[in-house]
Amino acid sequence: MNLTITLDDADSDRETRSLCEWLADTPTLRADVSLRAAAPRADRMGLAFDAVQLIVDSAFQLSSLAIAIDGWRRAYAARPKMTVERGGVRVTFATADTDGARSILRALEELERAAGPGDAEGDAGQGDGS
Q1: Would you say residue 96 has pLDDT above 90?
Q2: Which of 4, 59, 103, 114 has a CA 20 to 30 Å removed from the CA of 121?
Q3: 102: how many CB neighbours lie within 10 A of its CB?
Q4: Alpha-carbon gap, residue 19 to 27, rounded angstroms
């Protein structure tokens, strides 16, 4: 399952890098985690990043992802608004969301249902294993 996480209110890519490192260092989350390069801008030198991309091998990893995201949001004082996207379907977590991992998990599960088992990002063929 391919997921993209963007931090909508971030002033720089520092927050995006922090989230990527946090997710990559979470031992219970078995996912390929990488940064997505932002489009070049004339007013900025060097490479910037605008999103974290994840490839999660199963829906069972969604609970680990929800706990990891909640942990990062609690540890990171700025708590920028976060959008998670899969197959063109988006869910957004507001900065004041206090329900934590439970609300994040519900939103990720809804994202999984809405995008379906074979979304436009190449998840076809990752069926139920039967």
Answers
A1: no
A2: 103
A3: 12
A4: 14
Q: What would the two tokens of residue 43 be?
A: 């007013």
Contact 37, 47 (CB under 8 A): yes
Q: Which amino acid is at 34?
A: S
For the chain, what percent of residues have pLDDT higher than 90? Answer: 12
Output the six-digit token pair for 9: 């209110």
DSSP per-residue string spanning 50-107? EEEEEEES-TTHHHHHHHHHHHHHHH-TT---EEEEETTEEEEE-TT--STHHHHHHH
Return the pLDDT at 129.
37
Contact 72, 18 (CB under 8 A): yes
